[in-house]
């Protein structure tokens, strides 16, 4: 095998691996904390003296590069967003890469460069990493995992246990863009479109909401989409979530592809949206704050939490009602 | 597919995934911090007010179960050990699983139970996790990644930059056990043996050394083995490492298999050993402390760091000298 593709020896702890780490990973991810020779890295004290928060996520999206992102930028956004919706400011990430033997090194470098760019934009640094190389035929090219560390203000209490009957449900922008953008990038469907994934850090949005009195709970609707977040609310609280279908922002192109292929956009992954539950009287203020940000311009109040049976009810355009069932079969695998 | 094997739907964010996480992961890993419904988890303040340390590692060992461990226990020991050799007390782990469609759920449960057992022994808790399911034919069954968080005493300064000419090099026990135990567990070799992997937490060993004046540097010799750690010392310091071959502990069975198959035990992975560099006058005390622990009974002073060319020299049994070259091709892939 030539020098332009990954070999098993790139994973063995010896000279090839050192070269790969230095020329691809360390070069793009360079920061004062990253020390590719250390077993563990010391984290400087994080501002504010709040609560240290941690989260982790794996990434197996196919294709690895898609309109609006790559598996690399997604691995930053996914983990940054899990910290952000928990009310934390993201600071540090660690990175695991599982790479298939024969992988094009130039492509790996593009992906790591896009990861580095996303990290810079989200103001997080990669402080530690690990690389494994697997034999040809395993891994589907590349999997990544990231673990994030952040800090949440001591007083901020958010959670499913704080959701009350009467609360309003908001979403920060159109749903399903990421799912459909990735789907269109798969050649198997023979479709093309202009649609970009919504993948981005939601920290500006969550930060805008965090100081709002009456903020109960935030979550980013990834795998399983908006509907799955709402089911989690029902299951945890025993309350009903009632949605106003006409209020839910869905891009025309997303709706069109969904209709063509039989998908429901409410079950498709977003990677740059926030679902927020707020005390009803604070909903207009929450909406104003979201809409004031470029990413939140299309935010909407989409429903409410109510006493009643623990299910998700969709009030349709024509005045009917439909129960949204919990997801069983995977409508669109390998989306994140 | 029946209910006893992993389906793609176990990874889609819906009801199958929730059930898998509750019945397999959460049941075995249960602890007050783990909240499978949260996006991120708040870490209680860690004792001692020291420096927060973080590290991450991926695991792809084949076979997934081997004498002395599983990929699950290894995923605990590997990351705990990276914290330990950096001088930290390990507290928290996060866990990523990449599981192949069709994987036997009973086997997954055995592996997660062994992971949970290793975590209890090492006194760390799993605080967050993520699971991805990949199509049949990818992943080689199961990959894991763990990220560890610990605390290092404020005053403790360890690192390759502290290594000085004249320092002594110690190893805490026989080298190559893990590599050979995994190799023997691979049916392809048609060999059988009683040998167990040395995989274990090295924290008791590193804790015993941490209070020693004159401790310069510790590392666990995993991929690439003892020799690769010594090459890292040479490269970072520009100094020579001189080894006394007869002093290096190698089990008879490891030596025999190595001779038969043409491996060098100095390049084989350990998963429960520590290499320590200490100021020469402190070496006897370091040895005493290691040998006082069950895991360190066969510890030895194996060489020294010297001014001279930056290479690893092995003084052989017969009085000759041999330069240990840096590892290029992988002698034994998928060892961790």
TrEMBL record, chains A, B:
Q: Which SUPFAM superfamilies match?
A: PurM C-terminal domain-like, PurM N-terminal domain-like
Listed GO biological process terms: protein maturation
Q: Which Gene3D superfamilies match?
A: PurM-like C-terminal domain, PurM-like, N-terminal domain
| Superkingdom classification of source | Bacteria
Residues forming the PurM-like N-terminal domain are 40-151
- Record domain PurM-like C-terminal: where: 164-311
Concerning Pfam families, the annotation shows: AIRS, AIRS_C
The similarity comment for this entry is: Belongs to the HypE family.
* Stated name of the protein: Hydrogenase expression/formation protein HypE
Q: Report the source organism.
A: Nitrosospira lacus
Organism lineage reads as: Bacteria, Pseudomonadati, Pseudomonadota, Betaproteobacteria, Nitrosomonadales
């Amino acid at each position: 095998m030539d020098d332009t593709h990954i070999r098993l020896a790139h994973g063995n702890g010896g000279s090839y691996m050192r070269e790969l780490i230095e020329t691809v990973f360390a070069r793009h991810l360079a920061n004062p904390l990253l020390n590719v020779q250390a077993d563990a890295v010391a984290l400087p004290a994080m501002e504010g003296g709040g609560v240290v928060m941690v989260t982790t996520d794996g990434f197996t999206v196919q294709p690895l590069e898609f309109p609006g992102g790559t598996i690399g930028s997604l691995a930053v956004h996914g983990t940054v967003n899990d910290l952000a919706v928990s009310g934390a400011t993201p600071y540090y990430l660690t990175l695991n890469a599982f790479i298939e033997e024969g992988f094009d090194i130039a492509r790996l470098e593009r992906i790591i460069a896009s990861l580095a760019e996303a990290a810079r934009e989200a103001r997080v640094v990669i402080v530690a990493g690990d690389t494994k190389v697997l034999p040809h035929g395993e891994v589907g090219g590349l999997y990544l995992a990231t673990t994030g560390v952040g800090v949440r203000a001591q007083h901020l209490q958010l959670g499913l246990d704080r959701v009350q009957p009467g609360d309003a449900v908001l979403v920060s922008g159109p749903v399903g863009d990421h799912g459909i953008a990735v789907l269109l990038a798969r050649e198997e469907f023979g479709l093309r479109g202009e649609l970009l994934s919504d993948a981005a850090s939601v920290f500006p949005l969550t930060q805008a909401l965090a100081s709002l009195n009456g903020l109960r709970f935030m979550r980013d609707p990834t795998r399983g989409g908006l509907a799955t977040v709402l089911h989690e609310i029902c299951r945890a609280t025993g309350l009903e979530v009632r949605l106003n279908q006409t209020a839910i922002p869905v891009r025309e192109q997303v709706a069109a592809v969904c209709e063509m292929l039989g998908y429901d956009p409410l079950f498709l992954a977003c990677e740059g949206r926030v679902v927020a539950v707020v005390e009803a009287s604070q909903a207009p203020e929450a909406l104003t704050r979201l809409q004031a940000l470029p990413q939140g311009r299309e935010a909407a109040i989409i429903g409410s939490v109510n006493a009643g049976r623990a299910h998700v009810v969709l009030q349709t355009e024509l005045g009917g009602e439909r129960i949204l069932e919990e997801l069983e079969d995977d409508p669109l695998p390998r989306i994140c």
